[in-house]
Amino acid sequence: MYSLIRKAIFSLDAENAHDLTIKLLKLTGNSPLNPIIKSLLACPQGEEKTVMGIKFKNPIGLAAGADKNGDAIDGFGTMGFGFIEVGTVTPLAQEGNPKPRQFRLPEIEGIINRNGFNNKGIDYLIENVKRAHYKGIIGINIGKNKITPIEKGKDDYIYCLNKAYNYADYITINISSPNTPELRQLQYGDALEDLLSAVKNQQKILCDLHNKYVPIAVKIAPDLTEEELVQIADTLQRHKIDGVIATNTTISRENLPQLKYSQEIGGLSGKPLQQRSTEIIARLSQELKGNIPIIGCGGVDSLESAQAKINVGANLIQVYSGLIYHGPRLIKELVQNIK
Question: Helix, strand, coil % (nearest 5) of the chain?
């Protein structure tokens, strides 16, 4: 059935199709028919896994970017995800980059986006999280506004951390999107040290205030050199970060065939990212030595590709582009069979 749905969805511009899907999932999630739809999808419970001190009902999650504003948490929840990460969200609402900014590469199951953290702001998202009935784990992915100078970027993360802390099961610091100018500079050297120090100090304050510990993960890029990856792994460990998500989208077009839209500016996700993401996870796992859990993300489109990430060191898996190309049956397959 999804092949027919996909054909209809793919007849629309990529962003219009995404917006329509979110609206439909929002309606589904808020409908009295929600339990019936969930039973029709018949996704198994899956195998419980404890990561970052959190018990996940299964290790398969929805990656950030799919539901930026938390509009469709319950709709996505019917698909059987063990966790859903909403965002990236910023302190203030922002339009993002000019359209068009999303492009499908169906021949290779890829997607390019240069959205630029388009979202309705942290307050809007938090209200949606409060209303959600989803019983799985909810992560909130936070970023900085485009208008915020990079040297003041940590202020935006602290602002969002304060807002999200009491409503998230974990919080992700997104410093790896290629679509906000200079954002990736926060992955390196003194900028990363300063940001993580501020975030961890605030986490302790909030933990004492709310009497609960909310883990913090950092999402990294796949375009790091060997030396940069080693340095980041060392920094994450020294600051006792709770988790790392590997990886975000790539700006590389290496070995990408000449296709319509293939040279558009933006982050590339989907199958073309699959191998590089898995390589980053493997190298990261060697450096972290089990001290920090890894959430594997990038090009997961089958049980084989998900299992490959688990085999080299990922503790959990996130899916986004694969869901677009293969539909909810992919989630069912992963939940049922991942080891």
Answer: 45, 15, 40
Report the C-alpha gap between 339 and 337 in whole angstroms.
Answer: 6
pLDDT at 187 exceeding the cut of 80 = yes
Instruction: Examine the residue annotation and report whether 177 is marked as an active-site residue of this protein.
Output: yes
Boundaries of every domain in the chain: 1-337
Catalytic residue among 177, 277, 285, 305: 177
CATH class of 1-337: alpha beta
Residues that constitute the known binding site for substrate = 68, 113-117, 174, 179, 248-249
DSSP secondary structure code for residue 183 in this structure? G
Tell me which H or E stretch contains 230.
Answer: helix 226-238
**103-138 tens-digit pLDDT:** 999 999 999 999 999 999 999 999 999 999 999 999
**Which pTM does this prediction carry?**
0.96
Binding residues: 64-68, 88, 113-117, 141, 174, 179, 219, 247-249, 270, 299, 320-321
DSSP annotation string for 65-111: TSSTTSTTHHHHHTTT-SEEEEEEE-SS-B--SPSP-EEEEGGGTEE
Alpha-carbon span 154 to 148, nearest angstrom: 10
Greatest Cα-to-Cα distance within the chain, rounded to the nearest angstrom: 54
Mean pLDDT computed over 58-62: 98
